[in-house]
Amino acid sequence: MAAAIQFFRGVDETVVPDIRLTRSRDGRTGQATFVFEEPEALAPQSVGDITGMFMLDEEGEMVTREVKARFVNGKASALEATYTWKSTADFERFMRFAQRYAEGHGLGFAGQGDESAEEAQEEV
Asked: Has this prediction a pTM greater than 0.85?
């Protein structure tokens, strides 16, 4: 099973997000912020309400309910989702998902201050 992100169960989001991580000094807690510019989930033909962001891979599912829309001229243009972890185990699980998602979508990883990753247009 390829890693996927969904806003509607059973419908993979095709827009690849920009993902930024922040962690506490001790590394136990932190957040991943996903920004989807003009995602399919906001397309007029999308039906239903967005109740969360679902990250799926071979290990199962991770869910966040923290999803906000950004508006430009009164029209939703982006989605921003925040996934929070509260333990080292949760962080490691998230990173395994992020690695699978990156590999499945041809992305690279750019760490803080790492500008050498030429193909890493998106941070994962």
From this structure: no
